[in-house]
Design goal:
Helix content: 40-55%
Distance between the termini: 77 Å
Order of helices and strands: HEHEHEHEEHEHEHHHEHEHEHEEEH
Radius of gyration: 24 Å
Strand order of the largest sheet: 2-1-3-4-5-12-11
Structural class: alpha/beta
Number of strands: 13
Oligomer: single chain
Strand content: 15-25%
Shape: globular
Length: 367
């Protein structure tokens, strides 16, 4: 009986030991780099997740990636869970730029270096670095595409924006407005769906508050269904002189596809130019099929490389390289900026296929 008991104890020790051993990287043991992304419901962030995994697969450092699913409360829980695993660096894309301040302040109390990823966390001094695409340049590129491809005068212009809780939405719209406003003033475009923007059409430089008022009227909240409903409401409300050949500033690919579907189904819309951003696979197919005009390609491989390089520098006690700074309302945050590329049907092959970002057999009709 005693031998059986000893054998049972040994088996229990082995089982428990095996369970504990299985709790290594990202599942219970210490984690070096914690990554918090905003949602799994947008292809962009699932893509980023895979890029992060690929970037660290040959590294000695451990990482764990969590998703907040559009909830600031869940975001804070995720940060706390990662802090409990001993992270030394936090890479975080906030769901809500201001609400995320509480989460990163908890990280700073634990002497964790905070890297704001792609979206800047605002109104706190607890952000150490910001890795980003040049968001103003993104909006400017979208607007310039509309300017370069619009024909004639009095072209109806439909404005849409991202979420007012996202600092990037302000930067995108600011960049776009600075390019579009002179062309609104000279009669190239006429604003179709925003009385607030119409009231400011003679001002090139809008304050944060003024931008907020326009965005409040034309926001999609980065939601495809909300974008679809807003586009349907807009087209129902306008008169015939706001149809025909039109231009549409859509903030990203997910909203662009929804808005494009609405405009394409309206018999009074002859042609539409529509912008996008993120080079989502579905939108590249739309571009090939001439249902979306362009997208701003933000090479996530480069952004991930910049973020991970910065994190590893911190872990190696080195000072990360930065190329500028952004004011988050409380401090000027040192930043590393990544360039963006405009993609339309003329350069899909060169920028996305030849570069290895996508494979040609993932699309139909590619020339």
């Amino acid at each position: 009986m005693k031998k059986k008991w000893n054998l049972l104890v040994m088996l229990l020790v082995l089982v428990v030991g095996g369970v504990l051993a299985g709790c290594g990287n990202g599942s219970g043991g210490n984690v070096d780099i914690g990554i918090v992304l905003p949602t799994k419901d947008e292809p962009r962030w699932v893509q980023d997740e895979q890029r992060f995994k690929d970037a660290l697969k040959d590294s000695d450092y451990t990482t764990e990636i969590l998703f907040s699913q559009g909830s600031s409360a869940k975001e804070k829980e995720n940060v706390e869970a990662l802090l409990n695993k001993g992270i030394k660096v936090l890479i975080i894309t906030p769901h809500d730029a201001a609400a995320a301040a509480a989460a990163v302040e908890a990280a700073k109390k634990d002497d964790v270096t905070v890297i704001s990823y792609d979206r800047l966390i605002t109104d706190t001094d607890a952000v150490d670095y910001y890795v980003t695409f040049d968001s103003i340049a993104v909006g400017a590129a979208q607007a310039q595409y509309l300017v370069d491809h619009a024909e004639g005068k009095d072209v109806p212009l439909y404005l849409y924006a991202g979420a007012a809780s996202d600092n990037n939405a302000f930067l995108f719209f600011q960049g776009a407005w600075e390019v579009l406003q002179p062309k609104i003033a000279d009669g190239t475009f006429k604003i179709a769906n925003s009385s607030v923007a119409e009231s400011m059409k003679d001002k090139k430089d809008l304050s944060r508050a003024e931008l907020g008022k326009v965005i409040g009227q034309v926001t999609t909240n980065w939601d495809a269904n909300e974008a679809k409903n807003k586009a349907q409401t807009n087209l129902t409300a306008v008169k015939d002189d706001m149809k025909g050949d039109v231009a549409v500033l859509a903030p990203n690919d997910g909203t662009a596809r929804s808005i494009a579907d609405v405009f394409k189904s309206d018999g009074d819309i002859k042609n539409y130019l529509i912008t996008g951003q993120d080079a989502e696979k579905a939108s590249i197919q739309y571009i090939i099929d001439e249902k979306q005009s362009m997208t701003v390609f933000k090479d996530v491989r480069t952004l991930v490389k910049d973020a991970m390089g910065m994190a590893v520098d911190v872990l190696d006690d080195k000072t990360p390289e930065t190329t500028g700074e952004y004011d988050n309302g409380t401090k000027k945050v040192k930043a590393k900026q990544t360039d963006v590329i405009v993609v339309d049907k003329n350069n899909v092959q060169k920028e996305l296929i030849d570069s290895g970002y996508y494979k040609a057999d993932e699309f139909t009709g590619l020339k």
